[in-house]
Amino acid sequence: MPRELWKGNEAIAEAAVRAGLEGYFGYPITPQNEILEWLSQRMPELGRAFVQAESELGAINMVYGAACTGARVMTSSSSPGISLMQEGISYIAGTELPVVLIDVMRGGPGLGNIAPSQGDYSQIVHGGGHGDYHPIVLAPASIQEAVDLVPLAFDLAEKYLNIAVILIDGSIGQMMEPVELPEMRPVVRKDYPWATNGALGRKRRVLSSIYLEVSIEEEVNLRLLKRWEEIQQNEVRFKEYYLDDAEIAVIGFGTSGRIALSAVRAARAQGIKIGLFRPISVSPFPARQIAELAGRVKSMLVVEMNAGQMLKDVQLAVGNRAPLEFYGRLGGVVPFPDEILGEIQRIAKEPPSLGGNPAQRWLARMTAPKK
Amino acid sequence: MQTEILFAGFGGQGVMFAGQVLAYAAMDKGKQVTWMPSYGPEMRGGTANCIVVIADEEIGSPLVQNPPAAVVMNLPSLDKYEPLVKSGGVLIVNASMVDRTAQRDDITTILIPANDIAEEIGDKRLANMIAIGALLGCLDILTVKDLAAALEAHMPGRHKHLLPKNFEALRKGAEHAKKQRSNQ
Amino acid sequence: MSTVVTPENLVYSRPAAFTDTPTHYCPGCTHGTAHRLIAEVFDEMKIADRVIGVAPVGCAVFAYNYMDTDFVEAAHGRAPAMATGIKRVLPDRIVFTYQGDGDLASIGMGEIVHAAARGENISVIFINNAIYGMTGGQMAPTTLPGMKTTSSPSGRDVELQGYPIRMAEMLATLEGAGYVVRRSLHDPKNIRLSKKAIRTAFETQLRGLGFSMVELLSTCSTGWGVSPVESLDWLEQHMIPAFPLGDYKIAPSVAALKV
């Protein structure tokens, strides 16, 4: 396929169509509206299901119902809408159904704003809904990567009977880049042994997340956790840049990762031995790879568009292997490469020591009186 | 090699489209490119801007603080972005919509009456193409020919009849910029 | 030994669309009656192997244990959204929700109204017994003025707790609704009328004539604190005046159906 210039949201929506999406249910919220709008045209013209729901609550439960039939289904939203969907996400996890969710993050908390943010990391990766479950979360940093991850998200969701989330922010949703879209895959309705699609010629099936017998509910939880272990072993994805001889490693996902790439290049141009580690799967988190990396660099800098939500996972992985620093921007502010470069220069000049709380040090710097 | 170009103006002046045309041309030349809009309520009749990054390798940040090139189509955009242009950079100003000249002396400034030239060509919506033409007259990233080819390749069929006037606008913009530079 | 039951003298049996699981409902509860009517309609229409039911949260949370069809279990109030999802990807199946008053008229008000407004081709069986049964007899959106519940111990004070909601009347105003009626399960005549309405609701869906809902006035002798027999009288005397039985929306295309 030739490269075409695509807006992120539209490319993701079209990639889902080409991955054999059979049903989409969504609700308008900026900055993800183009996904809903694109599919409102494409799905009906292909004879596939599209519903603009009455709310995100309605949308996630429509997806829940449609997923019960074994159909390939998806919804999308942005931060406040995702918060509202958390009920359904927990039910879907408890029913062990494959569903794909696109979260185009915006500034918060509360109504916040519509600017790019990464403030949903915790509510998505660590589960904003009740109970013990782990979504698979893929965090692309470009539109091409997002487009490539959409079919993978469906495949992983169906392989592991798990929710798979594409976690991006408003900038990836709204920007345009050249993209090579995948070929159109035919819609294949898989004959799952659990799908509730009418008991014609077979015993009836029931799908539910209710297990009143606590010992059975515990078994279900253990099954989910064993499956999660398998996912952790098989589905870690990341990308490394300039890390071979690096003494400082920057870690960032999605947009903050790609912005950090510009800063890393600028620092390299100044002779600083630095590289970038960009987690693509933030859940499962590349903890082992980051721990190994920590063992061979002198210090690490985590960059996020939140107050250090991923930092906590990095800290768990790194332990005392390397000193950590943090730089975050909040509330929809997107860091400029120069700002990250400033942090890199500071670390290169005065290497941080082990211990202490990097998020606390960052907060002190952020709130210090301006010189 | 990486170049960043900012386009800014009122909603309706075609600054988003101007950036997209540049992005298409860069893509067609095999470059890496990003087009990042400002989005949301401020677009509804207010100011609009977008940043295009053109590079030979994987692009990191789609936003930059100090772009080496900016095209400003109105006074608020001139006020806001003139101070941000990187030293040694290029600033294209739509002189039809501002009542002052640029104040920086460490950048190349082209004052081009884009609206007036557009009226001469016969379609006031072409001001954006005239401004891009002027930009290409000052930047060695892409040629007017590349832009024209991108317009031809990507303009929807129903707008194809507008192509000749768009080509004329690009050309006039570039000529104007070259003339102004040789006088500087 | 002679055979007592022969095809000639068989007048009553378990519907084929029923499982042989005894229900968990309290003595005197009309959920069992409603379940049976639905199962009989499935038998008569020979559709059980095409049906996907959506169970609610409430006393009927285990409805899927009793009806021998595919079933899914919704979150509280979300059954119409779940049913929408199923029906949209499997339009040739028969999809129904079975919901109580707390589920449908309180927490799930948004979902039911919009499913009806969209004219979703689903059937809704709405059990209105004016109380939250499963959670222990709290006030419901359909609790009558003055009625005592465990969360309105002095009786529902309309000044503070508002008035009951009449769902059939409300949904009947929506263009997407093809068939919306209210029936009662307090005596044999009304039970027969209820079954006919359930049949009509599923026929409406089968023909793609829009959203259908049968509201069934039901008893909760446990929650109401009366005996099963008294509960039937109480329903007739108090609920029917507050929730008049009748046909609230019968689209012309549905009226033309011969059921």
What is the assigned CATH homologous superfamily of the largest domain in chain A?
A: Thiamin diphosphate (ThDP)-binding fold, Pyr/PP domains
Report Rg of chain B: 15 Å
Question: Mind describing the biggest β-sheet of chain A?
Answer: 7 strands, mixed
CATH superfamily of chain B, please? Pyruvate-ferredoxin oxidoreductase, PFOR, domain III
List how many beta strands of chain A DSSP finds: 15
Number of beta-strand segments of chain B = 6
CATH architecture tag of chain B: 3-Layer(aba) Sandwich
Specify Rg of chain A, calculated over alpha carbons: 21 Å
Strand coverage percent of chain B: 15-25%
- How many domains of chain B? The number is 1
Major β-sheet strand ordering of chain B: 2-3-1-4-5-6
**CATH fold-level name of chain B:** Pyruvate-ferredoxin Oxidoreductase, domain 3
Shape of chain A: globular
* Largest sheet: number of strands, sense, barrel closure of chain B: 6 strands, mixed
Labels describing this entry:
heterotrimer, B: 184 residues, alpha/beta, Pyruvate-ferredoxin Oxidoreductase, domain 3, C: 259 residues, Rossmann fold, seven-stranded mixed β-sheet, two-stranded antiparallel sheet, 9 strands
Structural summary, described in words:
- The complex is a heterotrimer of chains A (371), B (184) and C (259).
- With 371 residues, chain A is an alpha/beta fold.
- Chain A contains 13 helices and 15 strands.
- The longest helix of chain A is centred in the middle third of the chain and has 21 residues, at 214-234.
- The radius of gyration of chain A is 21 Å and the shape is globular.
- In chain B, helix 2 links the parallel strand 4 and strand 5.
- In chain B, helix 1 (15-28) packs across helix 5.
- Chain B has helices at residues 15-28, 75-81, 114-121, 127-138, 144-154, 163-183; strands at residues 2-10, 32-37, 47-55, 69-72, 90-94, 108-112.
- By secondary structure, chain B is an alpha/beta fold.
- Chain C is built from ten helices and nine strands.
- Helix content of chain C is 36%, strand content 18%.
- Chain C has one domain: 3-Layer(aba) Sandwich (Rossmann fold), CATH 3.40.50.970.
- In chain C, helix 1 (31-45) crosses helix 7.
- A seven-stranded mixed β-sheet of chain C has the order 2-1-3-4-8-7-9, with helices on both faces. In chain C, strands 5-6 form a two-stranded antiparallel sheet.
- At the A-C interface, helix 3, helix 4 and strand 9 of A face strand 1, strand 2, helix 2 and helix 4 of C.
